Amino acid sequence: MYHILSCDQFLRQDLTELFALTDEIRANTSRFGKALQGKIVATIFYEPSTRTRLSFEAAILRLGGSIISTENAKEMSSAIKGESLLDTIRVIDGYCDAIVLRHYDNRAAANAAEVSSVPIINAGSGSGEHPTQSLLDAYTIYKYKKNLDGLSVAVVGDLLFGRTVHSLVKLLALFRDITIYGLSREVLELPYEYVTYLRQKGVSYIPCRSFAEIPYDVDVIYQTRTQTERFENTDLQVEEFVIDEAVMKNFSPQTILMHPLPRRNEISPEVDQDKRAVYFQQSHYGMYVRMSLLYNILVGK
Ligand code: NCD
After folding, report:
1. Domains, in order of start, for the chain
2. Does 51 qualify as catalytic in the annotation?
3. Cα separation values, 152 from 10, 104, 173, 219, Å
4. What is the rounded distance in angstroms from the CA atom of residue 63 to the CA atom of residue 122?
5. Whose CA is nearest to atom 8 of ligand 1?
6. Active site annotation includes 102
């Protein structure tokens, strides 16, 4: 059984292999066109999604598999009739070979894995983790930087509720000599459990309050959206750290700018023309990384 639940579970070697397979699939996509023939993957989403669901579904189709799906499971599945997630999983696992699950509860994927007879792939669990996003993030960094050792990465924005950040920092901790700058407002700081995790793994974590505290030659800036939908206090207003041309002028030509998307105002559209802005490429890599993950899970290494 090969569930994908949290970035805790990966070894450095897993990433090396996954990146190599992703390169191979990108270079020879059609050669993998029948890999999932006869297999059915369920995509069950209790929260909105564009990239994650569609790139997973495109990945399944490009590998020759079939899909059963509910894109608005909170309202369109039996959840509305009061069925528990675990009962839903116990039923769906009999219809398919793997379940890609996005849910608003941080523990959902782990709980589903306890009862599922097929692999569960966490496609985002509340404000917890989003491991497949960070695999594609790490792959993107690898493509632009060649190596993840010795990197400096600034994570910016909502570090409290941003599940993509939580997963990414855990993956980065697999590499040597990593420095992470955490730029956020005080109310959206990286939770203590992740700061502790990083320190235990020997990562240097530096909280920041302004772009000026991030070095000119930082390798990666990873901007994120404020997850207002997760705020308990709906009146809370948090000023965003907007990245525009003026901000980008303070960074090296080698610094890359990433974002898991969707963005709102936190990256000005003018920055899209900047060669260092790689977020659309990053989202395109997502489909290939997910192909490679599904291949590993359903066909075997
Ligand atoms: C992210 C998510 O759902 O956590 N989106 C994604 O999967 N690419 C980020 C976000 O919603 O802000």
Report:
1. 7-130+286-298 (3.40.50.1370), 131-283 (3.40.50.1370)
2. yes
3. 21, 31, 11, 5
4. 20
5. 260
6. yes
Query: Of the candidates 137, 106, 136, 138, which has an alpha carbon nearest to the alpha carbon of residue 122?
Result: 106
- How buried is 24 (Cβ within 10 angstroms: 0-12 exposed, 13-18 middle, 19+ buried)? middle
Q: Is 257 helix (H, G, I), strand (E, B) or coil?
A: strand
Taking only the tens of pLDDT, the chain with its 301 residues reads: 589 999 999 999 999 999 999 999 999 999 999 999 999 999 999 999 999 999 999 999 999 999 999 888 787 777 777 789 999 999 999 999 999 999 999 999 999 999 999 999 999 999 999 999 999 999 999 999 999 999 999 999 999 999 999 999 999 999 999 999 999 999 999 999 999 999 999 999 999 999 999 999 999 999 999 999 999 888 889 999 999 999 999 999 999 999 999 999 999 999 999 999 999 999 999 999 999 999 999 998 6
The whole-angstrom separation of Cα 112 and Cα 108 is 6
Residue tagged active-site, from 26, 51, 90, 230 = 51
